[in-house]
Fold:
Amino acid sequence: MTITEQQTVAEVAAQSLGAVRTFEKHGIDYCCGGKRPLEEVCREKGLATGQLLAELASATSVAGEQDKDWQSASMRSLIGHIVQTHHAYLKRELPALTERFRKVVFAHGERDGAVLLPMEGIFADMREELEAHMYKEEFILFPMIGRYEAAAEAGAPLPMAPFGSIANPIRMMEREHDSAGGGLARIRELSGGFELPAHACGAYRALYQGLQELEADLHVHIHLENNILFPRVIRLEAGR
Ligand SMILES: [Fe+2]
Ligand SMILES: [Fe+2]
Structure:
């Protein structure tokens, strides 16, 4: 594939996991803030556009890249992947992180409360939002996308959605993604980039590792929805 500097980060990320890794390496937001052309992002980061394009070209041409082509797979299979991989991850890890926060705050709250307590509060709000968010996706939006796709495959008219255009619930999901992304960014900032204090114990370390892993997983998760799934169903609805 040919990548140009006029393409947005989100568009390039949507084509390949290799590109996603390159963006991660440079700290480039390919997720909620990904709708910006490569040249603009390079200017802001002080990166040479030519060099980034070359890196992207080699990262996306790696043979055997264990990357599934989610642009051509069915949207139903992409949804299955999102739910089984990323939603399952959150359902497992969010409660585990709550428990780790409890332990670390109990042990270190007196000394590090100024950092740990606001971080725990942001995390608790984020967990609640994400759990409600996944519920809406799994029980309302994703089944509707499945019905749209099945109708399109059968050459039948698209079913009537109770919420009008499918762009409406999608906008709501994207706003919630922004909110989760913002929460993670604040947690990263409060923790000084997950820099462990010298007195950190094993639970502290596990908490920071878990939060970093959550951030990485959520970025891929939101990327699959914002950059691939949602644009595909919007194109389908618009008949493009
Ligand atoms: Fe999701
Ligand atoms: Fe989502």
Summary: Helices lie at 9-15, 17-25, 38-45, 49-60, 75-153, 167-190, 202-238. The two ends are 22 Å apart (CA to CA).
